[in-house]
Amino acid sequence: MRKGQITIQAIVFLIIGLLLGAAIGYFIAPKPTGDIDALQKELEDKEAQLQQIQAQLQDALSQLENLKQGKTITIKVWAIGPDPPSEYRFLNFKLAAEVLNEMLRDLGSNVTIEIEGQFFARPIEWEQYRQNFYQSFAAGEAPDVYLTGHEDIGYLAENNFIIPLDDYIDKYWDLIYYDIFPTLWKSVEYKGQKWAVPQDTEARPLYFRKDVLRQLGWSEEEINALPEKIKNGEFTLQDLLEVAKQAVDAGLVERGILHRVKEGYDYLQFYLAYGGSLWNPQTGKMVFNTTAWELTLNWFYDAVYEYGVISPNQFSGDWDADFHGPFTEGRALFLSGGTWHKGEWIQKGLLTEEEFKEVVGYALHPAARPGGKPVTLSHPLVYTITTQAKERGLDEIAFVLVTLVTLPTFNSKHAVQSAHLAITRSQVMETQYSQDWFLQDVAYMLEYTTFIPNHPDWGKYSRIVFNALRAVETGDMTPSEALNYMINEMQAQIGDSVEFVE
Amino acid sequence: MSGESIWQKEITGEDIKRFFQFLFGALKDVFINLYNKFYDYGSQIISRYGSKMAIFFFLIPSLGFISIFYFLPFVLTFLIGLTSMDFTFQWNWVGIQNYIRIINDSFAPKILGNTFFYVFTTLSFFNVGMALVVSLITNHIPDEVGSAVRGIWLLPRITPSTVYALLWLWAARRESNALINWFLGLLGIPPIDWMLNHPWVIVILVNGFVGTSFGMIVFTAALKSIPEDYYRAARVDGASTWEIIRYIEIPMIKWPLLFVTAYQTLSLLTSFEYILILTDGGPGLYTTEVWSLYSYHVAFRSYGGTVEIGYGAALATVLVIIGIILSIIYWKVFKFEEMMSEPKIEV
User: Fold this and answer.
1) CA–CA min distance A471, chain B (Å)
2) What is the CATH number assigned to the segment(s) B106-341?
3) A-proximal residues of B, 138-177, CB under 8 Å
4) What is the CATH code for A71-202+379-447?
5) How far apart are CA A315 and CA A261, in angstroms?
6) Integer Cα distance of B196 and B198 in angstroms
7) So where are chain B's domains?
8) CB contact under 8 A, B300 and A463
9) ipTM of the prediction
């Protein structure tokens, strides 16, 4: 027990000693000479300065490193055909980047522009392409440059996917943008701002087989005069049905008229020919013209059931077996298509350039009544810059590239290979473009062209139209039932976005 | 330097063998260690909290798996169904507005009718009916022939579904030289536009031929497990083949029959891939559109770029509810509890 007591005593002394020492130390310690707060602040200031200097030094060092090694800026571009010949919508960026890099090197810069991204072609269709974009956007991996149909602009702008480009366009106005066909600018405007740069445009001709008309007893002069007659309103939608029926009745062709086999916009031209319009730029609302739709539905019904010139399940068909095949093999007389189809037929080897010249003619879509105005529809594709490009600080560089590919040299590569029309006035005279007789031939159609609305609800309008036309063709609905369906669905789904006119 | 380094040495079979021995050995160690750890914790929990808690402990891995991959998707679908979500993937809550829209959707009754027609017809004619016929017939013919026939019936099941559907699409084309019309032509029947005039026939045939094989396998297995004595006794009593089928085989495979009926109902209710490829819901307005396809179309397909993921999810939720109701009905009417309680095949 003694041993234990000694230990406790020793511990107690030690603690007392420590406390004493601390107390003495506290009282005899030298007092600080100035205000302690001021000193503290000075110290913090010095530290902050040091950190700033360090950061600057770091920055300068990394810049030096960049200069030494060269800096690579990657721009991500997405474009779609879906027709394979339209690959220059994407490839042109690579070509433009090469030129730009050459220039940068010559100027002594170490910056290199690299293009990554993708050209989407069939079997990827528009729906999937759009879905890919929205999903990559949600993941923060959206492309910097996104090619899309001009009608998407309303939706993309409204939901903050893309940035307005007025300031960018103004900057390079005198380089190329002054030269773009003024009608095309209309297609990229939404709420008074420009949201995109037109990439291409096209017309939708009515193709016809000259050889079949010859067999029907048409003279060469009559055949060659047909586009002019249509232009002057002397050959109407009614005549179209009559001639198609003659060819079917004579056993020359299996089908009189072919139209697209999936949802799309080509068939809207018949509604436009009947005096319908799709939107009112004043109010910004879409337009539903009851009379024009009634006449259009009746025309389709007659074409299938009175004249037997359109197949009742054309809308469930296959692109090759029910569209390209029958026409290029001469088993159909008329085809409501687009200028790009010529490019597709040649590239697929369905027709050679010579055969096309020999057996295929093309005109506007006829007017509904004698003396009326014929129509075509354009669907310009456009380059947009995403808000994510701006967040990454790449919007300026992305726009420079868009500007470069808009130059006639680049754009003509695309236009010629895919049979799309020029977007700038000077492009019409551009060496490659001016040698393409077909593109020169159809250029006049742009004077008759119309666009679909840049409205966020356009997709619903389009789907209702497609459902109604398809139901009339298959006999599921009479034209009047289909009209009622359209009116009811439009009112129920997008009533606030549509103006109904008689 | 003399001698070859390890990188220059040629790799022999022995090396590969050793490598795999090492790999599997290591894997085995890891696995056994994990298992022991898990087992130790388990035993600790049993001793500390009793065996009831231990059940939960041992269920954790599979509960986690089930909730992530099975339960969560349904919860998400249900929640998205309460929004007006579109391509922007924003959760804009709209309450039960989507469900009100379903009630007012002028095509919902037609599509629901299509769905029940499709499920009922495919089920009764093929997935159960044809499956039963095939397994009964192949059970009553010599086994080698029977097996071969059943093997052939399995072919559509192992053909990639897109290829299989596209082949049908070509066979059923309107031209006189398409396969079906060519056959009919031999009999002097003029060509028929199958996809336009009889789309349901093709849709049901395609689904049915694939669906038959599942029931066929289950029924055949059940038939094979009926003891030979029953057949012998029946034959001694002078029973015909039909009587054997009627009074011995069908009663004995009652439970597999009910199971296949219930299982295939639910699977047909939600499957739409063949319809998508064959008709895409056409040829007219929603002619062959079924509920699940409608939900897909609304949520993901729009040429003009407008999609309604919220509305599509609400439609999908309705389908889940229909599935649950049907399951309960089957459970009650077919007395599934009784089936689950003890094996019904052994006699």
Assistant:
1) 5
2) 1.10.3720.10
3) 169, 173-174
4) 3.40.190.10
5) 4
6) 6
7) 13-80, 106-341
8) no
9) 0.71
